[in-house]
Amino acid sequence: MNNITDVLPLLQEPKKIWITTHHKPDGDALGSTLGLYHYLRQKGHEPVVVSPSEVPDFLLWLPGIDTVLNFESEPKACLKQLQEADLIFCLDFSRLDRIKTMEEPLRQATQPKVLIDHHLNPDVAAFDYRMSEPEKSSTCEMVYDFIRLAGDDTLINNDVAQCLYTGVMTDTGSFRFPITTAAVHEMLADLKRRGLDHAVIHQHIYDSWSAERMRFLGYVLYQKMEIYPRQHVGIIALSQSDQQQFRIATGDTEGVVNYPLSIEAVNMAVLLTEKKDEIRMSFRSKGDIDVSTFAAQHFNGGGHFNAAGGRSQLSLEETVKKLKTLLNILPATSKEVPVSK
Ligand code: 5GP
Ligand code: MN
User: Fold this and answer.
1) Ligand number nearest to the C-alpha of 28
2) What's the fold here for domain 2-206?
3) Across the 341 residues of the chain, what is the mean pLDDT of every consecutive 10-residue run?
4) CA of residue 19 to ligand 1 center, whole Å
5) 118, 120, 282: which to mutate for ligand 1, most atoms within 8 A of CB?
6) Exposure winner among 25, 81, 90, 207, fewest CB in 10 A?
7) CA of 308 relative to ligand 1 center, distance in Å
8) How far is the CA of 340 from the centre of ligand 2 (A)?
9) Ligand 1 pocket member 303 (CB < 6 A)
10) What digits encode the pLDDT tens for the residues 247-273?
11) Atom of ligand 1 nearest to the CA of 281
12) What is the DSSP letter of 221?
């Protein structure tokens, strides 16, 4: 395992560079990969960003998003680019099982693999060069650090700044989570001095909902959110039919898990979403509740201390039951009635 500074000499000559991120990419995943993409292009490289799955609608405005390849819908083109690449960058995930069907091709790829990521418990053996810093707010902050480490501050143009701001903003809940350090604010100040219009980015992400999505949120909070004040837990379980009713698309459930956490009595929130082949789970917590370990131990997942993900192969009903048992929420047949609706 080599240090990230050892990558810098590899970037002295023009290279074909394959950049990827995790399945169901979010603001930090696409902000960091595209931020790096815009930087590397200015250095004379030929980068390509490959996403394991579809890009969500709320990020379609990101500069360069139209160049992103989707492995699910165009695997051949993605594999051809992988074969031709000299170097591979893996951003915003720390274990190869987070990239689903891309895992095998990437494992077999012989080119050097560079990790830039802030998740806990990285799979050290899978990468040749590593920048793994769980104390960082976002992978976008780390790409910013990487560019500065290379002494290339002057290459932080508006495209790079827009992409990197997006991931820091989304991963810190608009700069309010405890992980928002002084270094984050210094980075933001630097981007502002370089001319970034931050208000436009907030508008793109937070004020561009469809009416349908807003009604879906209303339905979810009114009909689907269960609050258990004694256990300090909030649970939302969404079936496929719930999602179909409102024609929910990739990314439309983004942020829903945070709502129960806004309730004073709730210290842990769980969103369960029924997909075609599995139940997807999102965990969020306040303070000293470690949802990353909980997700890893019980739901084949992981992530960060206060924000993690996981999955279950059980039915939606069975998964909710397992979760409630683990959280000491008594079965519905008992006298304990959840406060909901
Ligand atoms: P989300 O609930 O938004 O999908 O994920 C919350 C955080 O946990 C994100 O930083 C995401 O990258 C991470 N995460 C989600 N699923 C997994 C997983 O299965 N394993 C690991 N290690 N991290 C995950
Ligand atoms: Mn992230």
Assistant:
1) 2
2) inorganic pyrophosphatase (n-terminal core) (3.90.1640)
3) 90 98 97 99 98 96 98 98 98 95 96 98 95 98 98 98 98 96 98 98 95 95 98 97 89 94 98 97 97 98 96 98 93 51 41
4) 19
5) 282
6) 207
7) 5
8) 31
9) yes
10) 888 789 999 999 999 999 999 999 999
11) 2
12) I
Instruction: Give the start-end residues of each E strand in the chain.
Output: 2-3, 16-20, 46-51, 69-70, 87-91, 113-117, 129-132, 225-228, 233-238, 268-274, 279-285, 302-303, 307-312, 339-340
Ligand nearest to the CA of 92: 2
Q: In what order do the strands lie in the sheet with 279-285?
A: 302-303, 307-312, 279-285, 268-274, 233-238, 225-228, 339-340
307-312 and 225-228 strand pairing: unpaired
Q: Sign of the C-alpha dihedral, residues 136, 138, 142, 148? A: negative
Distance in Å, CA 43 to ligand 2 centroid: 25
Class of the CATH domain delimited by 211-328: alpha beta
Enumerate the domain spans of the chain: 2-206, 211-328
CB atoms within 10 A of CB 277: 8
SS3 305: coil
Bridge pairing between strands 129-132 and 307-312? unpaired
**Among the bound ligands, the one closest to the CA of 119:** 1
Structure-token pair, residue 30: 């696409």
> Which residue has the CA at smallest separation from atom 15 of ligand 1?
309
